[in-house]
Amino acid sequence: MKYAKILILAIIIAVFIYYKFSKDNTILLEDKLSMFLLVKMHDDIDNILFDLSSQIKSFDEYIHNVYYMRDNDFLINKKSRLQFDLDYVNYKSLLTCSDISDFNIEMSTLIEEHFLNHNSSFHLTKRYLLRDFLVRFKTYFKHQISLFNKFSPNPTLEKPLENFILGSKYITDHKQENYIMRIEFSDLESMNRYHKSGMDSVLNSILDYNSKVFNSDLLLYNPMLDSAPIDLLEFQLRQYVNEFDSLDEAVKYHQDLILSDNVHLIESVYDYYFKNTNDMKIETLKLSRAVSDSAYQINYLDYKNSLLILEEKLITLQSDDLTDDDVIQDILIELVGDGNKSGFYSNYIDMISLESDYMVENLNRLFIYELNSLFSQIDQAESKFDILELPQNIRDHLFANNKYKVKYFVK
Fold it and tell me: Which pLDDT score, from 0 to 100, does residue 203 have?
């Protein structure tokens, strides 16, 4: 019965994608103007990506844009005003927590409402959104465990709460195993001149230098050479692009693609889009009084119990037959184990005892500090989305020649 359901779902998805592609075949195209550089996870990823992008941008005779980073500042100051992913997962609710235990309990509620309630409107989008949630969750708690163990956390996660609520500031695959940098040429002529001039050998020298200096692991795919390392990845690096005349059409297409289980890494202005609220009541966020009063003290048992409640939801997710997805299952096993071996999240709960009181209080102090800092940046004034307010490099990537672009990889 389970496999019959999966087969039926696969057929529906295939028909949906065929329909969308057939309907929009005049504007659907494969991205032949980009090279894709994959960078394996690394503790010094900030410097690795900055070094690469700075040098590649110097090829300005050929390269139009180097795109690898989302603009989290824009999302805080703009998107958090109104919608903030409310259409699919209400991360906004996490901003009103009073302490770190309350935050864990609120995450449990979010899992219950969006991923365990089979009658919800999130049913069809569950896999895609759950992958994203679990990747954020895993990264957030790895950082928290590092702090608890007094290890130096990954420097790219200096704002773990912000990164959890907004998502990674860098473009990554679903498992956050590879950072993806797009090197976008100005046009086909520029791409041809790039190869004829021998600049591809210069780029290879830059990649070799970066690997030696930072001990980075890099993989470059150039569609012109037709050498996609498909066997090394769980998704194809061929990127498809659909162009739309209106923002509403682009947003709708992005939302429809979320329903497709074999679509990876959708990008469009929808990532930065927020709704005008002329016809709806604005929900004003309020910082919890406990946070405002800087009440850092927290009982270690309350913290541990909140983690146990959250663990129960993760285990329930693991047994849910609707999450028959390799990415989701691998992350859940890594978090809570498989019945034979405990995951790192479950082991973390076992570590917390009476002697942990001081460390738990420090974790709560850091949590409240970051929540205060995040809240201070949020402007809740009523606003209308304006594409021109997006940073130039994002507009170059997702809005060009008065066309709204939806870009995505497929399995």
Answer: 93
Specify the 3-state DSSP secondary structure of 243. strand
Decide if 66 contacts 57 (C-beta within 8 A): yes
Compute φ and ψ for 30, nearest 5 degrees. -90, 135
Phi, psi at 122, each rounded to 5°: -90, 0
Pairwise CA distance, residues 76 & 334, whole Å: 30
Distance from C-alpha of 307 to C-alpha of 314, rounded to nearest angstrom: 10
Residues in the chain: 411
**What are 168-216's pLDDT values in tens digits?**
788 887 667 788 899 999 888 999 999 889 898 999 999 999 999 999 9
Instruction: Name the residue ranges covered by the structural domains of the chain.
Output: 71-168+286-377
Q: Rounded to an integer, what distance in angstroms lies between the CA atom of residue 256 and that of residue 403?
A: 19
Locate 280 and state its tokens. Answer: 């709806």
Q: Which one-letter DSSP state was computed for residue 318?
A: H
Q: Are 71 and 272 in contact (CB under 8 A)?
A: yes
Backbone angles phi, psi at 90, to 5 degrees: -85, 70
Q: Looking up tokens 């470059």, which residue turns up?
A: 220
Both ends of the chain: CA-CA distance in Å? 25
Q: Are 78 and 383 in contact (CB under 8 A)?
A: yes
Give the number of other CB atoms < 10 A from CB of residue 61. 11
CA distance 47 to 50: 5
Instruction: Specify the pLDDT at position 23.
Output: 47
Tokens representing 304 are 């541990």
Instruction: Give the SS3 label for residue 316.
Output: helix
- Rounded to two decimals, the pTM is 0.76
Return the pLDDT at 43.
78
Low-confidence ranges of the chain (pLDDT < 50): 2, 15, 18-26, 81-86, 279-280
Residue 159 CA to chain centroid, in angstroms? 15
Output Rg (C-alpha) for the chain, integer angstroms: 22
